[in-house]
Design brief:
By secondary structure, this protein is an alpha/beta fold. The protein has helices at 21-37, 50-56, 82-88, 104-116, 128-135, 158-171, 186-194, 204-207, 212-234; strands spanning 9-12, 41-44, 60-64, 92-95, 120-125, 141-144, 176-177, 199-202. The protein has one domain (9-234): Aldolase class I (TIM Barrel, Alpha-Beta Barrel), CATH 3.20.20.70.
C-alpha cells in the first residue's frame, strides 16, 4: 500500500552534504521532530542508507533520490531497479532532479512504474511551465524549483509560489505541490506554506547552518505555525 503524506509537510534533503553515521543521526532527529510536531517529514535518502533508515525510524517517509525504468528480468548491471528500492524500505522516489535529469519519456514511464508498485512519485521541474507539463503525467507530487535557486541560499519570490501552486492545481487539484529551492530560513518555510504550498523543504539550508539541528527544528515549527495561521485566515 502506498504511504500517505499528511499535509503540509517538510522534505529533508541529504544529497552528499553528509554520509555514513551522520545520515542516520539526522534521520533519527527527523523521526523525533515528526512525532513531536505531528508533521510528516519525507527524507531524500542516499541509496546505500535506505534500509538502514527504514529499520530505525517510524515516521520518516523515505524517498530514493532516483530510479531507472528497467524491470526485474535479469539485465541491468549498475542500474537502480524500482522494485529494489521498494524492497529496501523506500516509500517514494525523486524523479528529474536537476542533478539527475531524465528524458520526458523516462519521466512518464517512471511515474507509471511508481504507481504500479505503490511508490510515491515526486517529480521536479525547472519552471512553472515544465511543472504544468509534467503534471499531465499525474505524479503524486510536483516540485517546481528553478535551477538557479537550488543550493543558492536565495529562494523564489512570493509571486512564484502563488503562480506555481495555482498552475499545477489547475491541471489536477489532487496533485501535491512542494515549493522549495534555496530555502534557508524558517521565514522562507513559513512563507511557502502560508501562501498555499502543500509542502516545502531544505537541504543546504540545514546542513550549512551553524546549528543544523536547531535550524531543522525551527523549520518544522514554521510549517506547523504557517498551517495554523493559514487555517485561521481561511476561516
Amino acid at each position: 500500500m502506498k504511504r500517505k503524506i499528511k499535509l503540509p509537510f517538510f522534505e529533508l534533503g541529504v544529497k552528499y552534504y553528509i554520509y555514513g553515521d551522520d545520515v542516520l543521526q539526522i534521520a533519527l532527529l527527523a523521526d523525533k521532530l515528526a512525532k513531536k510536531y505531528d508533521i510528516d517529514i519525507p527524507m531524500t535518502t542516499p541509496f546505500v542508507d535506505i534500509r538502514w533508515i527504514a529499520e530505525n525510524t517510524e515516521r520518516v517517509i523515505i524517498l530514493a533520490p532516483y530510479m531507472d525504468t528497467l524491470r526485474p528480468h535479469g539485465r541491468g548491471q549498475g542500474s537502480i531497479l524500482p522494485e529494489s528500492i521498494k524492497a529496501a524500505g523506500a516509500h517514494g522516489v525523486i524523479l528529474n532532479h536537476v542533478e539527475c535529469p531524465m528524458t520526458l519519456a523516462n519521466i512518464k514511464l517512471a511515474i507509471e512504474i511508481a504507481r504500479e508498485i505503490d511508490l510515491i512519485s515526486v517529480v521536479c521541474a525547472d519552471s512553472v511551465a515544465e511543472a504544468v507539463a509534467l503534471a499531465h503525467f499525474r505524479p503524486d507530487i510536483v516540485v517546481p524549483e528553478p535551477t538557479e535557486y537550488i543550493g543558492s541560499g536565495q529562494t523564489t519570490d512570493l509571486n512564484y509560489v502563488l503562480e506555481a501552486v495555482k498552475a499545477v492545481k489547475a491541471v489536477d487539484p489532487n496533485i501535491i505541490v512542494e515549493v522549495g529551492a534555496g530555502v534557508s530560513t524558517a521565514e522562507d518555510v513559513y512563507r511557502n506554506i502560508f501562501y498555499g504550498a502543500d509542502g516545502t523543504g531544505a537541504c543546504s539550508g540545514i546542513h550549512n547552518a551553524p546549528d543544523p539541528a536547531k535550524m531543522f527544528e525551527d523549520m518544522i515549527i514554521s510549517v506547523k505555525k504557517a498551517a495554523e495561521d493559514r487555517l485561521i485566515n481561511y476561516i
